[in-house]
UniProtKB/TrEMBL annotation:
Name the UniProt record assigns to this protein: HDOD domain-containing protein
Species this protein is from: Ferrimonas lipolytica
Lineage summary: Bacteria, Pseudomonadati, Pseudomonadota, Gammaproteobacteria, Alteromonadales
Top-level taxon: Bacteria
Length: 363
């Protein structure tokens, strides 16, 4: 299918473009509710059950039903007030670089290691020194290498230095940012949206490594940048989920102390609304750029600057690879999950003429 006369090629950077299909992809990713649940026909069950009962029983049941509906209405009002308050707080926090920095799980030591891994001439000694100062990441690397050793029938390693020596520079660039990204969200329960984020990022990371040689790029650098590109959505989920739990705990404590049983029940049952996160995501933002670039060297900061650009032609080869991988990941997800019509997807690919061939081949 060729693009229609009215479809103009886009010069937008896929990493910052917020088109309709991108929004559909992010809405799918952020949504935490399973789809296609079967609903029972409660009205028919209710009618069958009360058929032939005495009038006094039906009247009593109607009164109980009316009381229950009034109670449910009050619960919904409490929950709406809470969600409205949460929306305002989330918008306030995500609009403040200082508050984002305070809520970020990313430490300066971790950024120092990532900065070294992005360098054109990676110093293995410096990487090892920085790695040994991060116990969680060191343990994750040992587990990763032992998993590889198990597949090869090799002997397990017992410390981070041995694990480190098993890997070359390019593999360290591929592995360490990915392991660190997972650790940033290991503190709490693993939500459905977080599992989808990991799945998406793993696909994007592998695709960047696969595309890198054709652009004359180092695969390790390309995969590392593909991971860092997703820091923005990670920050939103991390800060959004933590803020929700903090406010929920505060409201539950107040309701308990005030003896407001219905309010306590309402807040106890409320779930983090995906629409709040989607609304925050749709607003212009540079959360990842602001968080990462402040602690990177000038040589590596340019990658963050490029990925935050609005126009595709301002990307270098390394970030162009990430743009390709990102678009292919979105395209394949939309296709696999049947979130758009096939014709829409084809036209969308053609709107990025420089990327159309790659997305058609891999997505």
């Amino acid at each position: 299918m060729k693009p229609t006369a009215g479809s103009l090629p886009s010069t937008a950077n896929p990493l910052t473009d917020r088109g309709a299909l991108q929004q559909r992809f992010w809405q799918y990713l952020i949504d935490d509710a399973p789809k296609n649940r079967q609903q029972q026909d409660a009205d028919k069950v209710e009618a069958d059950y009360w058929q032939g009962k005495l009038e006094v029983e039906r009247v009593a049941q109607q009164q109980r039903q009316a009381d229950l509906e009034a109670q449910q209405q009050q619960i919904q009002q409490f929950q709406q007030r809470f969600v409205s308050h949460y929306d305002k707080e989330l918008q306030r926090v995500m609009a403040s670089p200082e508050l984002i920095s305070q809520g970020s799980p990313i430490t300066e030591a971790e950024l120092g290691l990532l900065d070294e891994l992005l360098s054109p001439n990676v110093n293995r000694n410096r990487v090892l020194t920085q790695l040994t100062a991060l116990p969680s990441l060191s343990n994750a690397l040992v587990r990763y290498v032992n998993k590889q050793q198990l597949q090869r029938d090799g002997a397990p390693v017992t410390n981070v230095r041995l694990a480190f020596n098993f890997l070359g520079v390019e593999e360290l660039q591929q592995v360490l940012p990915w392991l660190q990204f997972q650790l940033w969200r290991r503190n709490g329960p693993t939500s459905l949206r977080l599992r989808k984020l990991w799945r998406m990022l793993q696909q994007q990371k592998k695709m960047a490594g696969k595309l890198a040689p054709s652009f004359g790029c180092n695969s390790g650098l390309a995969e590392g940048l593909a991971v860092l590109q997703s820091v923005e959505i990670m920050l939103l989920l991390h800060i959004g989920e933590n803020l929700f739990e903090q406010l929920r705990h505060k409201w539950l404590t107040h309701a308990r102390q005030a003896g407001e049983k219905l309010a306590h029940q309402a807040i106890f049952d409320v779930k983090l609304p995906s629409r709040s996160l989607v609304s925050a995501w749709q607003k212009p933002h540079l959360w990842g750029f602001q968080t990462l670039s402040a602690h990177l060297s000038n040589a590596n900061k340019r990658f963050m600057v490029e990925m935050a650009q609005q126009h595709y032609h301002k990307l270098s080869a390394a970030t162009e690879v990430v743009a390709h991988a990102h678009l292919i990941t979105i395209s394949s997800t939309l296709k696999k999950r049947k979130l758009v019509e096939p014709e829409q997807l084809v036209l969308w690919r053609y709107s990025y003429p420089s990327l159309a061939d790659a997305t058609k081949k891999y997505a």
